[in-house]
Amino acid sequence: MNDNNKSDLDRLTESLEKHAEKSEQKLGMVSFTDLFTPSFMSTYTQFANFGELLTVGKFNVNSLEDFMALLNDEFDVFIKKKTKFKNWDEMQSTAVSDYFKKQDASN
Q1: Of 1, 25, 86, 107, which has the maximum CB count within 10 A?
Q2: How distant is the alpha carbon of residue 4 from its chain centre?
Q3: Nearest 5°: phi and psi at 34?
Q4: What is the SS3 assignment for 37-88?
Q5: Cβ neighbours of residue 27 under 8 Å, at least 6 residues apart?
Q6: Exposed, middle or buried by CB within 10 Å (0-12, 13-18, 19+), for 53?
Q7: pLDDT tens digit sequence for 7-37
Q8: Among candidates 99, 98, 79, 97, which has minimal Cα distance to 88?
């Protein structure tokens, strides 16, 4: 079907799909080191980096599965005691928000 035979709705749909694909490519996965930078950690915690937080908390993490397993009430209590956050969800949300603010500022 050439462009002349497409309705405005078809053209709009294609445009939205193309923009959505570009947005998805931009979002991708963000690493822990990009989220929990030394600057983030020193601003909101008493630790130099995320690894130090895990070490001090005696959280043994060698894989994604290990990390997912530690996301419980005990981890939330540690986050509340040792950071400026109420729990892990708040810490993670703030890290993501800060990351995207920096991305927007650099564009």
Answers
A1: 86
A2: 43
A3: -75, -30
A4: CHHHHHHHECCCCHHHHHHHCCCCCCCHHHHHHHCCHHHHHHHHHHECCCCH
A5: none
A6: buried
A7: 555 565 555 555 554 444 455 678 888 999 9
A8: 79
Q: What angle do CA 20, 21, 25 make, to 5 degrees?
A: 115
Place of tokens 């995207």: 100
Residue pair 22/43 in contact (Cβ under 8 Å)? The answer is no
CA angle 77, 93, 31 (to 5 degrees): 100
pLDDT tens-digit map of 67-101:
899 999 999 999 999 999 999 999 999 999 999 89
Q: How far is residue 60's CA from residue 79's CA, in Å, rounded to a whole number?
A: 15
